Amino acid sequence: MQDFIDQAIKNGVTLLDKGRCQFCGAEYSRGIFECMEHYNNGLQLLDFNNSDQLISRFLSVDAHALQHPEIHGRWSNHFHLTRMNLILDKMQTWDYKKSPLLSDYLNAYKLNNPNEFLTIPNPYERGKTTANDLIKATTANECIELIKQWAEEVYHSWRSSHCIVSKISDGFLSDCTIGKTQGR
Ligand SMILES: [Zn+2]
């Protein structure tokens, strides 16, 4: 928990602990703090040993991060939006081994593009579905469907940056062999 508090301080953002989440707009009584709890507890129906369900984990991490960019470093936006582009638009499978490969690729990309910022959508305008909706799921399939909808809405809300991340993901796929060997 301390991580996101520290990052908010670094970003000059005051975290509010009352009412709805100041970032995604979900109705809570303890703001972002409750939003983080719902997010952490919302994936309990999923079995991460099942590769079809594992993809939902990555999409939920991306959706929550991009709904709450104020509690992450700015290059996190590049990482999460590029991964969404790879999974949702480029139909790539994903697993734990690929995330560090993408991080490495972005670390090199950063050096050549130090001043590139993605445009952050306004708070409350980053997708209607939120972590608060995950508690509605009673089966793994319902949870998967909710996460898919959540991810698509958040991804769409960042559409002004799709062009940038699409180019990054193309570079990533041509730079490493995973795009050549594993389509979906
Ligand atoms: Zn929230």
Written overview of the protein:
The chain is mainly alpha-helical. Helix content is 57%, strand content 0%. The chain has eight helices and no strands. Helix 3 (51-67) packs across helix 6 (140-157), helix 4 crosses helix 5 (98-112) and helix 4 (74-89) packs across helix 7. The chain is globular and about 45 Å long. Bound molecules: zinc ion. Residues 21, 23-24, 26, 32, 35, 67-68, 130 line the site of zinc ion.
Q: Give the count of helical stretches.
A: 8
Unreliable parts? none
Mean pLDDT: 93
Q: In this structure, how is the largest beta sheet organized?
A: none
Proportion in helices: 55-70%
Our Rg estimate from Cα atoms comes to 16 Å
Measured by DSSP, the beta-strand proportion falls in under 5%
Specify the structural class: mainly alpha
The H-and-E topology, N to C, reads as HHHHHHHH
Distance between the termini: 35 Å
- Coarse shape: globular
Kindly summarize this structure in a few lines.
With about 180 residues, the chain is mainly alpha-helical. The protein has helices at about 1-10, 30-40, 50-65, 75-90, 100-110, 140-155, 160-175, 180. The model has no long low-confidence stretch (mean pLDDT about 95).
Defining key terms:
184 residues; single chain; 57% helix; binds zinc ion; mainly alpha
Secondary structure elements and pairings:
Blueprint: H1 2-10, H2 31-41, H3 51-67, H4 74-89, H5 98-112, H6 140-157, H7 162-175, H8 178-181
Helix pairs in contact: 3-4, 3-6, 4-5, 4-7
The structure holds zinc ion (ZN).
